[in-house]
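lol so apparently i was supposed to do this last week
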Amino acid sequence: MATDPNKFQAIISHCKEYGFIFPSSEIYDGLQAVYDYGQWGSELKKNIKDYWWKNMVQLHENIVGIDAAIFMHPTIWKASGHVDNFNDPMIDNKDSKKRYRVDHLIEAKAEEMRNEGREDEANGLLDELDKLIAKDDFDGLKQLIINQGIKCPVSKTSNWTDIRQFNLMFSTQVGSVSDEASEIYLRPETAQGIFVNFLNVQKTGRLKIPFGIAQIGKAFRNEIVARQFIFRMREFEQMEMQYFIRPGSQKEWYEFWKEERMKWHISLGIPKEKYRFHDHVKLAHYADAACDIEYKFPIGFKEVEGIHSRTDFDLKNHQEYSKKKMQYFDSEINQNYIPYVIETSIGLDRTILMVLSEAYIEEDLSTAEKQDSRVLLRFPAKIAPMKLAVLPLVKKDGLPEIARKIMDDCKSHFRCFYEEKDTIGKRYRRMDAIGTPFCVTVDQQTKQDNTVTIRYRDSMEQERIPADKVTEIVLKEINT
Ligand code: ATP
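anyway here it is w/ adenosine-5'-triphosphate bound
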C-alpha cells in the first residue's frame, strides 16, 4: 500500500499555519497527543458535527439525541467491562524505555514490507497477528516480533520485555478531602451515557423499538502510542448512535447500518474507492459482529468508524450491577425483553483528518512565462468553515461600502469573511488555503449595474452575477 508521509506532514503544517489545529499548550512545548482547534478548525468541526447530527437525528424520525455527562458512576465501567477488558497488549524496549502497542509495531513492519513490494509477506504477517491477538497469545506475539527482527525505532535494538496488558482509562478523584474522595474515570467512550439513560429516554419519549439514541461528546483514552496527529489522541470526540432492536433481528440491522453509514461517508464527496470495510477477527468483549469503515489516509487505510452488534451485553450488565430493570415491553408481540443494540461509532477528529486529507491539494499553475502554484482545501461547501469571502477590489471609490452591505446581507445566513487588504490575487489564495468555496469581488462595474464577480475556488472560474443574488446562490450550494 503506497503511503504518502510527505503529504501527511504537509497537512499538519498547513493546519497550523492557517489556523485549523495547534498542538495543545504549545508555549509550554505542547502536551503529547492533545490538540486544540483554531478559528477555522473549530468551524469545520462544528459543521461536521451538525452534518452528522442532521443525518442521524433530524432525518431519522425514530432517533433522538442526548448529551450525557463525562463523569459517571464508577460502577458503570465495571458493568461495561472496561475495568477488566479495556486493555491493549504492550511491550517495552529495555534500552530506550519506550512502550509500544504490539499490534502497531507489527503493522508498521507489514507497512515496511508493502513499501518494498513484499505484499504477500505483509498480508501473511497481518494474518498471523490477527490469529495471535484473537487467542491472546502473548508469547506467540513476542516470538513474532523477535522472528521478524522488529527493532525499537528509538534505540534500534530488539531488547524487548514480555508483553503485558495496559488499561487505557484515565482516572481522577471526586470529593474535596482526599480520604473521602472516590476514584472515578473519564469516560473512554460516549456509549455508556446512552445505555444508562436508555429507559429515561424511552419512557419520556414514548419510543417504540426499533429506535436510536445519538450523542456527540468527548472521550478519553490513555493511548500509549499517540503520534499520528489527530488520528490518535488522548482526548477526542466521538459521534455515536445506539440503535435498540428486538433480539434476533441484529443481523439485518447490522447490515442496514453498515450501508447507511457508508452512504453518509460517500455523501461527503469522497469517492467509494477511498473506503473499505474491515471485519473484526477478534471481537470486543461486548460484540457478536463488528467491522470498521476504513479510509485511505496518506498514512494508509485506517479506521474512521466502527459498527458493532453489541447484543444485550451492556443493558444486561447494567441491570445486574444496578439491580434496576432494563427491560422493554414490546406491545406488538406482547413480550418483555432486554433490547439488542447496533452501534455506529465514528471519531469526529478522525473524520476531520479524513476530510482534510481528501481536501488538501497542491496545484501547479505554472505557465511558459512564470512559475506558479497554489494550495487549496477542496471542502464540500456544506462543511467548509467559511462559505463566502466578500472583497472590494480596491479600498476606495465607495467599493468597501457596497461590499459591507453584501456582507451584512449574507452574514446572518452563513459564515462569511470580509477583507480589503492586499491584491485580489493574494486574497483569493488565502481563501483557497482555508477552503472558502466562493469569493465575490466588488469592482467599478458594480457601481454601474449592481453586479459582482463570483469566483469558484476549485475551477478558479469567475462569472458576473447580480449582487442581490449572492445570498441565494451560496445558500443553494451549501444546502446541496
Ligand atoms: P483503534 O483501533 O484505532 O484504537 P478503536 O477500535 O479502539 O480504535 P472504537 O472504540 O471503535 O475505536 O471507537 C470508535 C471510533 O472512535 C473510532 O473508529 C475512531 O474514529 C475514534 N477513536 C477511537 N480512539 C481514538 C483516539 N485515541 N483518537 C481519536 N479518535 C479515536
